[in-house]
Write a structure and sequence with these properties.
This is MFS transporter. It is found in: Cell membrane. It is a multi-pass membrane protein. By secondary structure, the protein is an all-alpha fold. Helix content is about 80%, strand content about 0%. The chain contains 18 helices and no strands. The protein has helices spanning about 1-40, 45-75, 80-100, 105, 110-135, 145-170, 175-180, 185-200, 210-215, 225-230, 230-260, 270-295, 300-320, 325-350, 360-375, 380-390, 395-410, 425-439. Helix 1 runs antiparallel to helix 8 (about 185-200). The chain is globular, with a radius of gyration of 21 Å. The termini are far apart. The model has no long low-confidence stretch (mean pLDDT about 85).
Length: about 450
């Protein structure tokens, strides 16, 4: 019975996460192919793409606020209730995007309504990630916490994979059909996925850590205040550590679709297929890396992946500039499929191990979402702006990837690997530090 319960917990964490990221990534990919033409209409196509990516970045800026709102609910009322709210919010906003009239129909209201729905997506996702992660980590046995923590991270790439496959199929339509109605289909189908996700999560109980807080009467009255007072250093560490996990990911997975089709000679299908294959490989690699972190620790894996990311920045662009579809595939497989996998697989578990249970939802959400806002959603925007500023040279974009790696290496140097401790032991240590801070 216990094994069945654990399986349901893992399924609930990955399914909900995958659905929310599916909704979220649809926008990122469609922004590069459709929204720049149907919603952000300009005389210069490059600026239309820039505006579309700017709205992509805008949702990342709102995600920390979603993290604060829903993590407060999660630390005060419970993880489960919060996850139902976030999934519902994402599903409604994504479905409405699929029925939104274009600029040619309602003029300026088209981008305004699209941006509004995108902001709602950002608020929902801001609270989703932390809850999905804690659902897995706080149920996990000590010796399998890395593996369990990597499972909801797989939801990120599974969501991206579903979105990419859906759009790859739709791009097989004639250009006119795709631009008229084909791009809307994945947005509309997301409603069915949301209903399934809510059904899966319905049968899950609250996590042991949250139940223990309730029993001991240690539930934080104002989690954000406690987090900023006692755990501000951990929040800064999490923000910095998130940078290399998020910026290269959106360059390899989102920016490349626009870059390969606009600046190089690849078709949309070539670019989307490369991202699809890279995403499949990284999804397979994640639980392997998570299980490996249970043996050697989160920090060594994270540092190794980050160093490789910095070393790979220039070879990545050199490979895709060879003009070969095979080289584009290889470049994406190495970057997105292999090098990125250990970084993202251990990130959530590493974050959860440095925060006290009573503010864990708030702490990991703040660090993750602020880091994503600063370096994730802005990555395609920054990369596109660098291309415009430096005459389509990829050198500044490669240097930008290296910079993200350096920032994250500095941040994670302060992390103590706690794979050998259970969460209760960590709780005692962290509560003792809080008590000292109070006195």
């Amino acid at each position: 019975m216990e094994k069945k319960k654990m399986r349901r917990v893992l399924v609930a964490s990955i399914v909900g996460s995958a659905i929310e990221w599916f909704d979220y990534f649809l926008y990122g990919t469609v922004a590069a192919l459709v929204f720049n033409q149907l919603f952000f209409v300009t005389e210069d196509p490059a600026f239309g793409t820039l505006y579309a990516f700017a709205t992509f970045a805008l949702a990342f800026l709102i995600r920390p606020f979603g993290g604060i709102i829903f993590s407060h609910i999660g630390d005060r009322i419970g993880r489960k209730k919060t996850l139902v709210l976030t999934l519902s919010l994402m599903g409604i906003s994504t479905f409405l995007m699929g029925v939104l009239p274009t600029y040619q129909v309602i003029g300026i209201w088209a981008p305004i309504l699209l941006i509004t729905l995108r902001l709602i997506q950002g608020i929902g996702l801001g609270g989703e990630w932390g809850g999905a992660l804690l659902l897995a980590v706080e149920y996990a046995p000590k010796e399998k916490r890395g593996l369990f923590g990597s499972v909801p991270q797989m939801g990120v790439t599974l969501g991206m994979l579903m979105g990419t496959i859906a759009l790859s199929i739709m791009t097989l339509l004639p250009e006119g059909s795709f631009m008229t109605w084909g791009w809307r289909v994945p947005f509309l189908l997301s409603a069915m996925l949301v209903i399934f996700g809510l059904w899966i999560r319905k049968g899950i109980d609250e996590t042991p850590s949250f139940k223990k807080n309730q029993e001991q009467g240690t539930v934080a009255k104002l989690p954000i205040a406690d987090t900023l007072r006692y755990h501000w250093k951990e929040v800064l560490i999490a923000i910095g550590a998130k940078v290399v996990e998020t910026a290269p990911f959106y360059i390899f997975g989102t920016f490349i679709v626009s870059y390969a089709t606009s600046n190089l000679s690849f078709t949309e299908t070539n670019a989307l297929n490369a991202v699809t294959i890279g995403t499949i490989i990284t999804t397979i690699m994640m639980p392997i890396m998570g299980a490996l972190s249970d043996k050697i620790g989160r920090k060594p894996l994270y540092i190794g992946g980050t160093i490789l990311m910095a070393l790979y920045a220039f070879p990545y662009f050199w490979l895709i500039h060879q003009g070969s579809v095979a080289m584009l595939m290889l470049a994406t497989i190495i970057g997105l499929g292999i090098i990125w996998a250990p970084i993202t697989a251990v990130l959530g578990t590493m974050f959860s191990e440095i925060f006290s249970a009573k503010v864990r939802y708030t702490g990991i959400s703040l660090g993750y979402q602020i880091g994503a806002a600063l370096a994730g959603g802005t990555a395609p925007l920054v990369a596109t702006a660098l291309l415009i500023r430096f005459d389509n040279s990829y050198v500044p974009v490669a240097l930008y990837i290296i910079l993200t790696a350096v920032i994250s290496l500095v941040a994670v140097s302060a992390v103590k690997d706690r794979k050998a401790q259970d969460l209760d032991e960590e709780e005692e240590v962290l509560q003792t530090s809080e008590a000292k801070a109070t006195t």
